[in-house]
């Protein structure tokens, strides 16, 4: 197989699949894919948690809490995620505490990967808050009143009654937002997070003949990642479906 791609690179210089026969470039691609997967999983989990908590706080009795959540939503929904990423890393990153593992080099507590996760999670979380809010509003008021009449607190009602039902309603919209989030992780390239796009650029900067096949690999990997996410979300949606509810 390696010999085939070496011969292809000689015969068709614009299609140099160098990462198929050179171990160092192959390592870059594999590490980039692994970083992309880890970044996507972390952002998906944190953004969903932010959405769940934010939707609950939107119904809080405190006006201050509601105003904070609304301000957060407006800020992250009305500014570009790329600008947010740069702001978090270059502006807020200046105030990040550092530590020195060897007594010489100062290392920030939050790395570029950490800032990418924080920024992208908050961005997608703002949309998730509104998605969960719409799902919560679809839950019949009589259901909430019934749980309260059984002695459930507001938190218990939200956790055991409202949220499970709201999830069933908002899963399609949540699916779309999480798909967009996975695709948006490519923007972490701007702050040198070694995900797949970053590693791909380093390869075709050193080997311009590898640009076309590496770009093809990028498209293929992201199509597969999104396909896996969509498949999993659809399976989850079908398993949670209640006949006659939320249709």
Radius of gyration: 23 Å
CATH topology (fold) name: MetI-like fold
Q: Would you count the extended β strands for me? A: 2
Alpha-beta classification: mainly alpha
* Portion in strands: under 5%
Looking at this structure, what is the CATH superfamily? MetI-like
CATH architecture: Orthogonal Bundle
What is the CATH first-level class name?
Mainly Alpha
Main sheet: strand order: 1-2
Mean pLDDT over the full residue set: 90
- State the end-to-end distance: 51 Å
Largest sheet: 2 strands, antiparallel
Domains counted in the coordinates: how many? 1
Helix proportion = over 70%
Unreliable sequence segments: none
Number of helices: 9
What are the secondary-structure elements, in order, as H or E? HHHHEEHHHHH
Shape: globular
Topology:
Blueprint: H1 2-11, H2 23-57, H3 63-77, H4 81-91, E1 98-99, E2 107-108, H5 112-137, H6 141-149, H7 154-184, H8 196-206, H9 211-240
Antiparallel strand pairs: 1-2
What are the key terms here?
247 residues; mainly alpha; MetI-like fold; two-stranded antiparallel ribbon; 9 helices; globular
Question: Could you explain the architecture of this structure?
Answer:
With 247 residues, this protein is mainly alpha-helical. It has a single domain, classed as MetI-like fold (Orthogonal Bundle). Helices cover 72% and strands 2% of the residues. The protein is built from nine helices and two strands. A two-stranded antiparallel ribbon has the order 1-2. A hairpin with a 7-residue loop joins strand 1 and strand 2. Helix 2 packs across helix 5, helix 7 runs antiparallel to helix 9 and helix 8 packs antiparallel against helix 9. The longest helix is centred in the first third of the chain and has 35 residues. It starts with a helix and ends in a 7-residue tail after the last helix. The relative contact order is 0.15. The mean pLDDT is 90.
